[in-house]
Automatic annotation (TrEMBL):
<dbReference type="Pfam" id="PF00293">
    <property type="entry name" value="NUDIX"/>
</dbReference>
<dbReference type="InterPro" id="IPR000086">
    <property type="entry name" value="NUDIX_hydrolase_dom"/>
</dbReference>
<dbReference type="GO" id="GO:0006753">
    <property type="term" value="P:nucleoside phosphate metabolic process"/>
</dbReference>
<feature type="domain" description="Nudix hydrolase">
    <location>
        <begin position="49"/>
        <end position="190"/>
    </location>
</feature>
<dbReference type="GO" id="GO:0047631">
    <property type="term" value="F:ADP-ribose diphosphatase activity"/>
</dbReference>
<dbReference type="GO" id="GO:0019693">
    <property type="term" value="P:ribose phosphate metabolic process"/>
</dbReference>
<dbReference type="InterPro" id="IPR015797">
    <property type="entry name" value="NUDIX_hydrolase-like_dom_sf"/>
</dbReference>
<dbReference type="GO" id="GO:0005634">
    <property type="term" value="C:nucleus"/>
</dbReference>
<keyword id="KW-0378">Hydrolase</keyword>
<protein>
    <recommendedName>
        <fullName>Nudix hydrolase domain-containing protein</fullName>
    </recommendedName>
</protein>
Amino acid sequence: MPQAPKITSVDALPADEAKWIEFQKISWSDQTGKSRVWEAASRKTRGKSGVDAVAIATVIRHPKNPPSTIIILQYRPPVDAVCVEFPAGLVDEKETPKEASIRELHEETGYKGEVTSMSPTIFSDPGMSTANMQLATVEVQLKEGDKEPDQALDDGEFIERLVVPLEELYDRLIQYDQEGKRVDARLWHWAEGLHFAKTML
C-alpha cells in the first residue's frame, strides 16, 4: 500500500540549487516616470516555442455515454494537498505546444485524440510569475467496447485519472473542494464557463 505524501521540511532555496525556476528583480519605470522594483519567479526551461507549458481540456465522445472530460488528481507539495487539475505538462525544448499536448495527454491519461483548438499564450499569475501556457482542446472519439487505456507515467509520477461527464463536472469540483482537495484555477474557470453557459444564458 503506497504511503501518503507529506512535507518533511521547507527551506530557502539557494539560487545555485534551483533547477526549474529563478527569482528575478525587475527594475522598471511606471507611467509617471517613477523608478520601481518588482519581484518575480521565472521558469528556466522555456524552449524554442516560447511557451512554458500546456493544459489539456479533453472532450470524450462515445456512442452511448454522455460527453465527458478527463481530470487528474495529483499531490502538489507547494500547497501540501491533492490537486484536481487538467492533464498538463511542460513543453519540451524542440516541441510545439500542440505536440506537447498530445504527448502529455497520452502520458498522464493513456488517451489519444485530435487537437481541435489551441488558446493564445496565457498567463495564470502575471503579478508573481513570468510563466505562461496554452490550453489545448482535444477531442477523443471512442467506439463501443473500447477499453480504458493504460497511463504512461514517468518514474515518480503518481497521477489518478478520472473520466467525468461534462454535466457533472461543476458539482464534482465543488465536492472535491469540500473534501479538502485543491482545485486548479484553469480547470475551475473552464467548468464555471460551462456552468454559466448552461444556467445564465
